[in-house]
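Final report, results section. Input specification for complex C-07:
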Amino acid sequence: MQWRDRVPFEQLESETEILPENFFARPTVEVARGLLGKILTHGRAAGMIVEVEAYLGKEDRAAHASRGLTPRTRVLFGPPGRAYVYLIYGMHECLNIVAEPDGVPGCVLIRALEPLAGIAEMKRRRPAARSLAELTSGPGRLTAALGITRKHYGCDLTRPGPFTVRRWRREPQFEIARSPRIGIRHCADWPLRFYIAGNPFVSRP
DNA sequence: CAATAGATCATCT
DNA sequence: GATGATCTATTGC
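Structure output:
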C-alpha cells in the first residue's frame, strides 16, 4: 500500500478558493448538498467532502441544537462557516460546519472525505487504517486523520489560515444520493444524509 | 462477511 | 446516573 499524495498540496491550493461566509448563510440542507465535492484542509492535509448529514434546529430532535442554547451548542446559534466540534461516545471527535444566518441554528456533519494531500501525515495519525478509504471514511476517522479536535471549536473556516473549506475553480460534476441519517435514535427516517453517488470513500452505500 | 462487545467521557436529566 | 451523530478487534458462519 502506497501512502503518496494524489494531488500536491500547492496545486490544490492554486486550483481552489476559500468559500465565503455567505455560502454557509443558507438553509442547512442547501449547505449540506453544496458542501459535497468541496475541499477541507487542515494544515497540509486535505480531502474532498463526499458524505454529509444535515442537522436542523428545534424541530429536529436528533440535532444538539434542539435542546436549546447550552455551553456546548453556543456556536450553532452564532454566525455561519464556523466549526462545531464535539466528543462522541467518550472517544471520537465529530466535525460539523455551522449553517444558516447568524442567530439561526443548523449545522452539517462531515461524515467522509476522499483523501487528496498530506496522506502520509494522515496515516501517521491513524495507523489502524489499512487502506486509503479507511483513513477518512467515518466522522471520527476523518477528524483523527486531519488532527481536528475540540480545540478547533468555533474556528472560522472562511478566513485564510490552516483550517479552511475550498471550492475548485472548475467545479466537478457528480450525482447526489440521499438517505436517512446514520446512527441516530430520533427522527431516524428523515432523509438528511447526502453523498456523492458511487464514490468509494463514502462510509456506507 | 456479519454480528457484537468494549472502550470512555462531556453533557444534560 | 444515563446516554450517545463511533471505531476497532474479535468471534463465528
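Residues 111 and 138 of chain A are 5 Å apart (CA to CA). The radius of gyration of chain A is 16 Å. This concludes the modelling results for the funded period.
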